Amino acid sequence: MGDRLLSAIWVPVLAIIATAAIVIGVGELLLKLASLKPEMSGVKEPFSVIVALVLAVGILLGATFLARDGNSSRG
């Protein structure tokens, strides 16, 4: 009983810590990339924009794959 209660507390706490670490890491990466080239062809911080776009597309493709895979196994 005690192990289940401890597991029920630590799993969400560790998930929150992991999520915060990912968000902070991506934010730091984008800030470092922003300082590399402040402006190029009228676009401010082009490397940050490109990396943010690639991350967003990757997350959307991953979510689409997981959602499609989950629906096909139910049916």
Brief overview, please?
The chain is mainly alpha-helical and about 80 residues long. The chain has helices at about 1-35, 45-75, and strands spanning about 40, 45.
Descriptive report:
The protein is mostly helical and 75 residues long. The protein has one domain (2-74). Helix content is 85%, strand content 5%. The protein contains two helices and two strands; from the N terminus they run αββα. It has helices at residues 2-36, 46-74; strands at residues 39-40, 43-44. A two-stranded antiparallel ribbon has the order 1-2. β1 and β2 form a beta hairpin. α1 (2-36) packs antiparallel against α2 (46-74). The protein is elongated, with a radius of gyration of 19 Å. The model has no long low-confidence stretch (mean pLDDT 85).
Overall number of domains: 1
Quaternary assembly: single chain
CA radius of gyration: 19 Å
Beta-strand residue percentage: 5-15%
What is the average of the pLDDT values? 85
Give the class from helix and strand content and strand pairing.
mainly alpha
Shape: elongated
* Helical proportion, percent range: over 70%
Count of alpha/pi helices: 2
Largest sheet entry = 2 strands, antiparallel
Tally of strands: 2
Q: Spans with pLDDT under 50 lasting ≥5 residues? A: none
Following the backbone from N to C, one meets helices and strands in this order, namely HEEH
Provide the spatial order of strands within the biggest beta sheet: 1-2
Termini separation comes to 36 Å
What attributes characterize this protein structure?
two-stranded antiparallel sheet; mainly alpha; elongated; 75 residues; 2 helices; 85% helix
